[in-house]
Fold:
Amino acid sequence: MKRILLTVFFMAVVSYTSFADENDLSALDIFSQDIEELINIKVERVIAASKTVEPIKYASASTTVVTSYEIKTQGYKTLADILKAQKGFYITYDRNYNYAGMRGLYKAGDYNSRILILIDGHQINDNIYDQAFIGTDFPLDIDLIDRVEIVRGPVSSLYGGNGLFGVINVITKNPDKNELSFSAGSFDTYQGRITLQGNFFENGYFLTSATYYQSHGQKLYFKEFDVPGVSDGRNYRGDYDKYPSFYFKTKFEDFTLEAGYISRTKGIPTGAWETIYNDNRNFSIDERAFFDLRFDHLFQEKYELMVRLFLDKYTYKGNYVYPEEIQNEIDNGDSVGSEIKLTYLSKNLRIFAGAELRDNFRQNININGSNSGEIYDFRHNSVNIGTYGGSIIDISKYLILNLSLRYDYFEFYDDGLSGRAAFVISPYKNGIYKLILGNSYRPPNIYEMYYNDNNQTQKAPEGLKSETINQAELIYEHYINEQMTSSLSIFYNDINNLIGFDIDNTDGLIVAKNIDDIQLAGVEAEISYLNVSGITGSLSYSYTYAYNEKSKNEVKSYPSHMLKSRLAYPILKRRITPAISFNYLSERETLSSKMLDPVLIADFNVLLSIVMDWDVSIGVYNLFNQKYFDAASIEHPMDAIEQDGISFRLKIGGKF
Structure:
């Protein structure tokens, strides 16, 4: 272990961290273009940090961009893999969903409701659980990602309640050539994709893509079910995972139309919610569809108008096998809405204002039993109207002031008001200081407010309050040279009325409560490197300390120390690119106050350019076959869930 840690510390490192406008400069394939051309495209603008275009160097938050080049060379398979490699992120998996903790705060089983996920600016979180899908349930094939903008810290002043901890904006690729890919891996896992692209007229294009994924899953063992004469604790068939997904994008002059669909079926092998163990009829289906029509136009070179119309559809289907019957849950969350934003642009001033309307015309939860009939039938609809505005003021060549404010009206919740102020100071050429002050909020979602399975395992709460957070952060970024940059962030968050699930001792039922008031402080440091030879990587360290004012105890569900490193190093005239990454996590606490052992996970991938526009990727995940666990949420009978050991993937892809 000591040798491995030393390897991490002394790796040559780096990461390509630059941002861009949604529709500018698609990243080039390293093997179809000269790598120097790829690297010299400095995508220097970002949208997600301020909801308007600004140079990344002066972005008003701790920001990172992960490019398609890094995704390809590192062999990332899902959005969860991408986030796991980034500073300040803690990713877990309960054999059904992936969960993301961020900057010291992690709530097992919260469905990622405090992180906002966007695809080209379109919200992906559903309107029942506010769930941010980041695993195989993410509706976009990872090969269609041009880059991922990651903004840390509260951003409710721009995006509303889901942006309590941060926002992740996934930017899709523009057309290049038709593509085909196939992969096979451990646990009988297979995936295939075909993408067709084309241009029409002078200012138009289309892209359409279809993907199918299937995995038989692991053969699992849980000691909680190892009961002589009843079960040996093994689950041979319940970890399966499969989905089809489709994506379409077209652009003609100022209009862009996007649509996506996924229907992911996942076996639930953990005996969650007291279901029968090792019965492959326990499963969940998450079906997600979205439609987005956007108009962007620049008037008189100084007025930028954006108008967006959108439609979202979410369906959850759960099948739960109990000794006495099989229960079926069907949740439907559908919404339609629009957004308008006007931006004024001048040399030293950018002002923007916008409004967003979302009509959640269907937010229904229905549970039926094969013997008992209808158990729970909840039908709901709601309206949310948000208005926001902000400005980026170049006060002098040394100081930029970034302000934003948002007010949200909720039909059935308390209204929300949040704001943020950022001071960006450039005292000398290669150094930037950023001071960020702000507050954010998150209202309870439909699941937290109303879910009730007829008081069998869970009941609805009374009097839930909105979560609030006050933030202060100081960032220093230093550009050492054209290849190497470093950053240091010190942050403090005061979080009140944090919602979690607990057992009510009076009846033994699960219920949502405002259970925590947390004060959280931390530091993040990173050094990154990129040169014209394509050598990329990074080394980052994160430390956080969280204190619960209600329980008067330190919060230990999130690892206090995280050390992450990654390196990609092209050789043999860039025909072979080996890449390796390390992810160290310190102790984490489970719900029963048990401490999980520290762990160091290494992943290795090698990318081979076999012929023009075709390549092979060979990945080995959990390279040292470490045995480690993630803390389980309250619906699982076990305290911690074992994660995958060493696994492999072979992927072949190319353009035609």
Notes: The helical segments are 2-10, 35-40, 68-74, 79-84, 156-159, 446-450. The chain has six helices and 39 strands. Confidence is low (pLDDT under 50) at residues 1-42.
